[in-house]
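sry for the spam today, last one i promise. struct tokens for design, 205 residues
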């Protein structure tokens, strides 16, 4: 969910505000290379809540969402791409009883994770993964993953509303601006990749 009222955005505490920026990055990765490049160029302005940069970005996100929802009517299921990063993200929030992560922070970890899965399954180029993770890191530090185990996440993931018949359906990156949805992966890969996540991400600023 992107907060679309600029007035409201300006009043958010910094951590909540940064948390919203991860959802903006999500829109860029799933559908918009131009937005992605804008975020790479203007992240400092966005962190300063520059009004013009913010207005441009918000308009872009609203357009992407409307477009995805409209195309979903014809293509059935396309709106699943809006859940990029949310499969693991929701599980992380639940596993920590909604106390450790802001929603966007959990989604940021979910996106980093989906990126590693994308690289591991040869869907996503390592150079794009590096570029994407660097953009996420430029927003700031993320709460640590310490103490969360893949085995703990498994039952949460299987109960997720996006899984069908207990099968987890992932949204996976293909390139910057394009994702694939409904991907089923073996649990061994899912848990091994989770264990391979760095315990922390982001720069401290
Ligand atoms: Zn969200």
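last one done:
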């Amino acid at each position: 969910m992107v907060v679309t009222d600029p007035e409201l955005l300006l009043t958010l505490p910094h951590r909540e505000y940064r948390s919203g920026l991860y959802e903006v990055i999500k829109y860029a990765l799933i559908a918009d290379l131009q937005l992605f490049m804008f975020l790479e160029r203007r992240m400092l302005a966005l962190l300063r809540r520059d009004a013009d940069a913010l207005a441009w970005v918000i308009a872009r996100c609203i357009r992407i969402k409307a477009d995805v929802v409209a195309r979903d009517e014809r293509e059935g299921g396309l709106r699943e791409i809006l859940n990029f990063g949310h499969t693991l993200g929701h599980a992380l929030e639940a596993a920590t009883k909604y106390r450790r992560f802001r929603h966007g922070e959990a989604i940021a970890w979910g996106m980093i994770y989906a990126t590693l899965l994308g690289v591991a399954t040869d869907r996503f180029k390592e150079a794009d993964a590096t570029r994407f993770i660097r953009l996420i890191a430029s927003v700031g530090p993320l709460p640590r993953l310490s103490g969360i185990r893949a085995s703990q996440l498994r039952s949460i993931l299987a109960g997720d509303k996006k899984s069908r018949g207990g099968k987890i359906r992932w949204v996976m990156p293909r390139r910057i601006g394009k994702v694939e949805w409904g991907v089923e992966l073996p649990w061994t890969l899912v848990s091994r990749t989770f264990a391979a996540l760095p315990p922390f991400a982001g720069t401290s600023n």
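The chain has one domain: 6-195. ok im logging off now
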